[in-house]
């Protein structure tokens, strides 16, 4: 009896096949254009023998098998082929149209759902004009970048407006003058499309275009000056600063009256007052003629009568 039960559970184990983890749940995965992403799917029991399974992509009103669709040719593979129960799907060189609903389904029609979001390149200064100044003989960087620096645009071009027509200078150098002088400023960052131009000449001045798509464009206006113009500008600024400094009015000096002057004035006033009082008293007692105090009247008004 015990042996029969053991055989029953043994047969049940292999008949059920691979039951995927997170069955009935929907996972959300985010990737970036030009990058890679792993859509997870694995058997809950690592000892399970996997029969058949499929990865499907929902398009329109039907499910399309990923491994049979030419859209994914050269871009799809199992994430871990050495582990039979790891059914995770690796998609490389992501594109915007890879975004959507995916389903990992095993033989007994047990499946898990995955929603894949793919973020593309939206330019920081989209539809704007950026002004850049460079100097003849030097290098200059024309700025252009995606809001998501991990997002690699599916298409990119740098163009220069020559004779009222934009011609490509990167990746394809349609203008001979730009050969071996242009390169990406930071090729290790997918979303940084800034262009470096070396050995500048005055002929490089003009309008440039960072083109990702018809909806994603940045315009750059490049001004190229001679090196002496840079020196003249610095000298002019220094002269203006010096001139402004010379025109500043000198600080006002506050003149303070020495304290001893006030003391002398006070003492002198007291002496005069005492003299006046003494003479007035004499006039009253000795009937001194007022003619003797004429000099006093010159300073103070005398109360003596003629």
TrEMBL record:
Residues making up the signal peptide according to the UniProt record: 1-17
InterPro entries: Ig-like_dom, Ig-like_dom_sf, Ig-like_fold, Ig_sub, Ig_sub2, Ig_V-set, T-cell_Activation_Regulation
Subcellular location: Cell membrane
Transmembrane segments: 260-279
Any one GO BP annotation for this protein: immune response
Domain Ig-like span(s) in chain numbering: 34-104, 108-221
Membrane topology: Single-pass type I membrane protein
Keywords carried by this UniProt record: Cell membrane, Disulfide bond, Glycoprotein, Immunoglobulin domain, Membrane, Receptor, Signal, Transmembrane, Transmembrane helix
Main location: membrane
Gene Ontology CC: one annotated term: external side of plasma membrane
Gene3D superfamilies: Immunoglobulins (2.60.40.10)
PANTHER family to which the protein is assigned, alphabetical: BUTYROPHILIN SUBFAMILY 2 MEMBER A2-LIKE-RELATED (PTHR25466:SF14), T-LYMPHOCYTE ACTIVATION ANTIGEN (PTHR25466)
Protein name in UniProt: Uncharacterized protein LOC113062773
Species annotation: Carassius auratus (Goldfish)
Lineage: Eukaryota, Metazoa, Chordata, Craniata, Vertebrata
